[in-house]
Amino acid sequence: MVVHEIHSMEEFKDALEKHPLVLVDFWATWSGPCRLISPVIEKHSDSSRYSSVYFCKLDIDAVREVSDELGIQTLPITVMYKDGTKCDEVHTGFLKTIEELLKKHVERDMETVKQQTFVSHEVQSLCGFQLR
Questions:
Q1: Highest CATH level, class, for 4-126
Q2: pLDDT one-digit tens code per residue, 57-67
């Protein structure tokens, strides 16, 4: 995977509409902690464990329209969106906290998929369909 750079409000909204799980790293060029987090976000984006997550970064100074609308005032901040809605955020530069955020939401999604698969198999079985 790659960490996608967001350059406009349109790109930001497009990412949230097209991808069920989106992690946005809000950063600024002048922020030392943001520069430290960036390689970690990139590492996680390359991990198959988080392949269901669409990773983005947004420079709050370059895309002021988005940061102003969302009220982003402190850095670093990493925000998780599910189905277009903010579901979690981390206001810290602690790298372990970012990984915990990812695990929490990816594992929750995987559990939902497992439950849906189980129910689907049960319904098929009750209806007399042959399971493969």
A1: alpha beta
A2: 999 999 999 99
